[in-house]
Write a structure and sequence with these properties.
Layout: E1 5-7, H1 11-22, E2 33-39, E3 46-52, E4 54-56, E5 59-63, H2 74-81, E6 84-89, E7 92-100, H3 106-116, H4 119-125, E8 133-138
Parallel strand pairs: 1-3
Antiparallel strand pairs: 2-3, 2-6, 4-5, 5-8, 6-7, 7-8
Length: about 140
């Protein structure tokens, strides 16, 4: 993806992105983070956010929790419109394709994510929407 990249407007996420960039992706203690770049579904601009992830085989798993809000996060809506994304894990940047975990994989991947980040369980309890589990598969 070529072009100027715009970071999340959320101050906490933007600060996290800057910290990630300044430390070459050094993880937070106990959490694996990646940067996800999507193309804005309305603006066409490249949008960057930071997400906790789990690894399963050669793919990365993230959740569209939006901290338990009743609406999906913008990055999720963007990748639904265009599943071709870029991820940065540590110092490695990879093109990837995003997809929502199918029904047969979703529960197992959800368990993987709440084991890694127990706060996701509280986020699910805070909303009536089902929080999507997203699989990011590098396309290199």
């Amino acid at each position: 993806m070529a072009g100027e990249i715009f970071d999340s407007p959320n101050p906490w996420v933007a600060a996290h992105i800057r910290r990630f960039a300044e430390t070459n992706g050094t993880p937070r203690p106990g959490v694996s983070d990646l940067l996800l770049i999507t193309r804005g579904r309305r603006s066409g601009k490249l949008r960057r956010t930071a997400l906790a992830y789990a690894r399963e085989d050669d793919r990365y798993v993230v959740v569209a929790s939006n901290a338990g809000a009743d609406r999906h996060p913008a990055w999720f809506l963007n990748l639904c419109a265009d599943p071709n994304v870029t991820i940065q894990v540590g110092t490695e940047t990879l093109p990837a394709r995003a997809r929502i975990a199918p029904a047969e994989e979703g529960p197992g991947l959800w368990q993987l994510m709440i084991t890694m980040m127990p706060s996701y369980r509280k986020y699910q309890e805070a909303t009536t929407r089902e929080i999507p589990v997203v699989i990011l598969e590098p396309s290199t």
